[in-house]
UniProtKB/TrEMBL annotation:
InterPro entries: Glyas_Bleomycin-R_OHBP_Dase, Glyoxalase_6
Name of the protein this chain belongs to: VOC family protein
Glyoxalase-like domain mapped to chain residues: 10-116
PANTHER family named among the record's database cross-references: CONSERVED PROTEIN, HYPOTHETICAL FUSION PROTEIN
Classification via Pfam families: Glyoxalase_6
Length: 119
């Protein structure tokens, strides 16, 4: 029996609305409720992403050991097409690419995320 249900994953950001728009482009989820320091993507009642104002937040120093605290894995059917799309949306491809079935990118705030090839 579960103790709890996943409601959302929140990312700290100095520019939460801009980061929400970036992930909206990647996931197709529309930007939902917003206020000055909190923005959510509208997942239709399912688990979603939220973005919280954190003016002093700094990007992790990944791939330095111990620098990565969390990241998102986003599944795609075609890595090359996914890469082109996330780069167009404002992502940066990370220099360090440790695998072949996924690719690592940095969002506009410098948070690592992966595009993972659907199995």
């Amino acid at each position: 029996m579960a103790i709890a249900r996943l409601q959302l994953t929140a990312l700290d950001s100095p520019a939460p609305l801009a980061l929400a728009r970036f992930y909206s482009t990647l996931t197709g989820l529309p930007v939902g409720p917003t206020d000055d320091d909190w923005v959510e993507l509208d997942a239709g009642g399912g688990p979603t992403l939220a973005f919280q104002l954190a003016p002093a937040r700094r990007a992790p120093d990944w791939p330095a050991e111990g620098a990565l605290q969390a990241h998102l894995d986003l599944e795609v059917d075609d890595l090359d097409a996914g890469e082109a799309a996330v780069l167009e949306a404002g992502a940066t491809k990370a220099e360090h690419q440790p695998g072949t079935t996924f690719r690592v990118f940095l969002d506009p705030d410098g948070n690592p995320f992966c595009l993972v090839l659907a199995s």
